[in-house]
Design brief:
single chain, 6-stranded antiparallel β-sheet, 18 strands
Length: 393
C-alpha cells in the first residue's frame, strides 16, 4: 500500500528524521485563500518567505508534470494552488491516463547545498534490508543505475543486529558527509522507519544537505507490505482509495489478488503460479491479458462471483478465460460462482472455461446444464487458443 509524501514524512519525523514543515490543503472552496493562510502560518513558524506547493499523488515525476512549484510571494502561492489542484498529472509512473490531484502540500522552502539519494528495500536473496545510496540525488535511481552505476552504494543490514554505527559511517563516507551523531541518527531513523512500519520500499529523493549543513528528507516515498497491514493500523488509516484503480479497491474488499493490465482477455485463475502461466500462454498465442486475478485456494461461490464482476467492469475485456485446477478449490464451486455472476450481470463476452482437479466432472456438468454460451477447453493450450480467437472475433 502506497501513502502520500506528506504522510511518509510524518512517519519519518516520528523517528527523528528531519523534514521540511508544511500544511495540507484539500479540495474545496476558497482554495487560494486557504493556501495563502497556510503560507502565512509557515512564515510565522519557520521565519521563511519561500514556499513550495506540491501535488500529492501516488507517483513520482510530479515536478516535470507541473505538480511542484516554487513560490517567492503569497500571490504565487495562491496561483500555484489554483493551477495544481484538480489537474491531471501525467508522469512515467501514472500511465497515459494520469492521476487527478485531490490534495496539496504547502511546504517551507529549503536552501539546498547538495542533493543525495537514500533508499531501503528488502533483498530477498540475502534476506536482509539493503540501503541504496548515491551522490546523484534528484534523479531517478533507475537512470543512475543505467548510466553511472559506480555512483550507487549498497549497504546490507543484517536483521539480527539491526542498524549499527558502522553502517552509518559507511553511508556517510560514500556520500561525502561528515561522520557526526546527527548524520548517523538520520540514517538510523530512516532504517527504523522502514523496519517498524513493515515497508516494502522507502525512498528519500532528494536527501538534501542544506546550506546550514543539516541533513533533511526533502521528498519521501513509502510503500508498505500489504501482508503486514493488519498490524499497521495507523498506516491503514492513511490509505487514499482515490489514488487506486477502482477494480483494485473492489478486489481488496473480498481479499482477491487483482492487478489490472492493458489487454483484452480477462483471466480468473486460482493460484498465483497458474495465473502467471495462464497470462504467459495467452501471450504465446497472440493475445494480451487484461488482468492478473487469483481467487485463492479456498474461495467461496460468492467470492468467485465477485471476481467475475470485477473482470467485467473493465471495458477493454473482449473475452474471459477461467482456468481452474481444483485442489482445495473445488471445480463445482467455481462453476456455481461463474453461473451466478454471469446471470446477474448478463454476460456479453465470450467465456472459455478450463477445469481440472477436484470434482471436475460435477463442475463441467453444472456449466453444461446452465444454458450459458460457454466454450469448454481441454488443456491449457486449447483454452488459450480458444480465448484468443474469441477476443479477436
Amino acid at each position: 500500500m502506497n501513502i502520500h509524501e506528506y504522510q511518509a514524512k510524518s512517519l519519518l519525523r516520528r523517528y527523528g528524521v528531519p523534514t521540511p514543515r508544511g500544511r495540507l490543503l484539500e479540495e474545496g472552496a476558497d482554495l487560494g485563500k486557504r493556501a495563502e493562510q497556510a503560507a502565512l502560518s509557515l512564515q510565522e513558524e519557520c521565519k521563511n518567505s519561500v514556499w513550495v506547493v506540491k501535488a500529492q499523488i501516488h507517483a513520482g515525476g510530479r515536478g516535470k508534470a507541473g505538480g511542484v512549484k516554487l513560490c517567492r510571494d503569497l500571490a504565487a502561492v495562491r496561483q500555484a494552488a489554483d493551477d495544481i489542484m484538480g489537474k491531471v498529472l501525467v508522469t512515467p509512473q501514472t500511465g497515459a491516463q494520469g492521476k487527478k490531484v485531490h490534495l496539496l502540500w504547502v511546504e517551507e522552502g529549503t536552501e539546498i547545498a547538495r542533493e543525495l539519494y537514500l533508499g531501503f528495500v528488502v533483498d530477498r536473496a540475502l534476506a536482509q534490508v539493503v540501503c541504496i545510496a548515491s551522490t546523484e540525488g534528484g534523479m531517478e535511481i533507475e537512470e543512475v543505475a543505467a548510466h553511472t552505476p559506480e555512483k550507487i552504494v549498497h549497504v546490507s543490514i543484517d536483521p539480527t543486529t539491526g542498524f549499527m554505527p558502522f553502517h552509518g559511517r559507511k553511508l556517510a563516507y560514500a556520500l561525502g558527509l561528515p561522520v557526526t551523531p546527527q548524520v548517523i541518527a538520520f540514517f538510523r531513523g530512516a532504517y527504523q522507519t522502514f523496519v517498524d512500519k513493515d515497508c516494502a520500499m522507502l525512498e528519500i529523493n532528494p536527501l538534501v544537505v542544506t546550506k546550514a549543513g543539516a541533513l533533511m528528507a526533502l521528498d519521501c516515498k513509502i510503500g508498505v507490505d500489504d501482508n503486514a497491514l493488519p498490524r499497521q493500523a495507523d498506516v491503514v488509516e492513511m490509505r487514499d482509495i482515490r489514488e487506486e484503480n477502482p477494480q483494485d479497491v473492489e478486489a481488496s474488499k473480498y481479499e482477491l489478488a487483482y492487478i489490472a493490465l492493458d489487454g483484452s482477455i480477462g483471466c480468473l485463475v486460482n493460484g498465483a503460479g497458474l495465473a502467471m502461466a495462464t497470462m504467459d500462454i495467452i501471450k504465446l498465442h497472440g493475445g494480451e491479458p487484461a488482468n492478473f486475478l487469483d481467487v485463492g485456494g479456498g474461495a467461496s461461490k460468492e467470492k468467485v462471483a465477485h471476481a467475475f464482476k470485477i473482470i467485467l467492469q473493465d471495458p477493454k475485456v473482449r473475452a474471459i478465460l477461467v482456468n481452474i485446477f481444483g485442489g482445495i478449490m473445488k471445480c463445482d464451486v467455481i462453476a456455481e460462482g461463474i453461473i451466478a455472476a454471469a446471470q446477474e450481470i448478463g454476460l456479453q463476452v465470450p467465456l472459455v472455461v478450463r477445469l481440472e482437479g477436484t470434482r471436475v466432472a460435477e463442475g463441467k456438468a453444472i456449466l453444461a446444464s446452465s444454458g450459458l454460451s460457454i466454450l469448454a477447453a481441454e488443456g491449457l493450450t486449447d483454452a488459450a487458443q480458444k480465448v484468443v480467437a474469441a477476443a479477436r472475433g
